[in-house]
Amino acid sequence: MKGKAAKKQTSGGKGPVKKEGGAPSASTVSSLLLHSIIQGFSIPAFVIGTDHKVLFWNSALEKLSNIPAGEIVGTNQQWRAFYAEERPCMADLILNGITERIPKWYAGKYRKSDLLEEAYEATDFFPDLGEDGRWLRFTAAAVRDDGGRLVGALETLEDITEQKVAEINQREIEQRLFYVIEGSPIPTFVVGLDHKVIYWNRALERLSKIPAIEMIGTNGHWRAFYAQERPCMADLLVNETPEIIQEWYRGVAKSKLLDETYEAEGFFPDLGESGRWLRFIAVPIRSSQRVLMGAIETLEDITERKRIEQVVIENEQRLRSVIQGFSIPAFVIGKDHKVLYWNRALEQLSKIPASEVVGTNRHWRAFYAQERPCMADLLVDSALAKVPKWYSGKYRKSDLIEESYEATDFFPALGKSGRWLRFTAAAIRDSHGELVGAVETLEDITEQKTAEDSLKKAARVKK
């Protein structure tokens, strides 16, 4: 016989070799070229023939699967690299022309390739690949010869574990953030760089009467607060234009606790039936690299607080009016001994205008030549034991009012020749019983005392 029969070579997936003692055939050259190309892939890949036996198993797939090509090439055990039990790979399904069975094995994980005919791609987790399993993105495509005949299938695989783990971690972080925001009792919304709402929590749903489903994905968050479209504070931070916040919100202030954070209060007449007072805080959201990603705005309904403040203001105005309307001279001091009120009658008696005394602790000037406590000061300090020291033989406890003392004394520094005053001091307590100040009223009884002294003198003369 001339020559020798051609020998087949399968070890290591190297494919057929040239005839002994002669030049390689065209098919051999093509096979070697295909083998070199596949081996040069940085992406794991394998090729199976029409009998489902592995023709090529490249180095990248050897590293990924920890299975050498010598164990797989020439067998139909490619499944061992990916699954614990025998089952078809996507390449097997394409090879058999039964792509309709792909959903059975890869339901919800695959799609037809946009780039190749007779190709499908999918993403899946393979728990038996490696120590902790791996996420793979894989594509399987039919291989046809020049005549269009199906001769095999190629499957490429990309390890996307790090990417998927990062995506899963990101989703978990976003989910936790969602639960934190959603569960917060503080009305909150978040907008992205496109000003569209990302979060709109339950508390804000209740406050605004607008469900999240109507708001998320839109830039209509202004509807909750204003009758016409205009920017919210979060929008101005997304636009990186904090310098114009004051043009939209009076009384805005930078937070003392957080950088790039602004807060303000305002009345929103279009919120609710009668409008609501809100305190709102906006802060930009940045990535770990300080890249702007959006802004978050929290809102606190302070309507009740504002109502109480208004009641307090009205009560103070009413009290001021009452005290100012007294025909009896009177003044009020706080716990710090500073004068809160100094009425007109006392201005006339003392010749000291209220503007010189209110806000100071110099009320003693009206009555004494040197600094010393008035009776109201002793009550503010709860220093009742010191009352006799300053008013010995001149005072008594009031029969009408608790924590109140009254006295009569002559004040030589008051007026040209001094004045006799009957004065009463009473402690002032708030609704919780806390001492907040003291009021002192004064009655000029100089004429009465002068008449009494005249009568006494006349009685002595008669005797």
Any overview of this molecule?
The protein is of the alpha+beta class. The chain folds into 3 domains: about 10-160, PAS domain (Beta-Lactamase, 2-Layer Sandwich), CATH 3.30.450.20; about 165-300, Beta-Lactamase (2-Layer Sandwich); about 305-450, PAS domain (Beta-Lactamase, 2-Layer Sandwich), CATH 3.30.450.20. It has 16 helices and 18 strands. The protein has a 6-stranded antiparallel β-sheet with strand order 2-1-6-5-4-3. A hairpin with a 5-residue loop joins strand 5 and strand 6 (about 150-160). Mean pLDDT is about 85; it is low at about 1-20 and about 25-30.
The percent range for strand residues is 25-35%
Give the CATH topology of the largest domain: Beta-Lactamase
CATH architecture of the largest domain: 2-Layer Sandwich
Which residues form runs of ≥5 with pLDDT under 50? 1-19, 25-29
Radius of gyration from the CA trace?
Answer: 46 Å
- Placed side by side, the strands forming the largest sheet appear as 2-1-6-5-4-3
* Fourth-tier CATH superfamily name of the largest domain: PAS domain
Q: Specify the oligomeric state.
A: single chain
Terminal-residue CA separation: 178 Å
Query: Could you tell me the mean pLDDT?
Result: 84
How is the main sheet built? 6 strands, antiparallel
The coarse silhouette is rod-shaped
Discrete helix count:
16
Structural class comes to: alpha+beta
Number of strands: 18
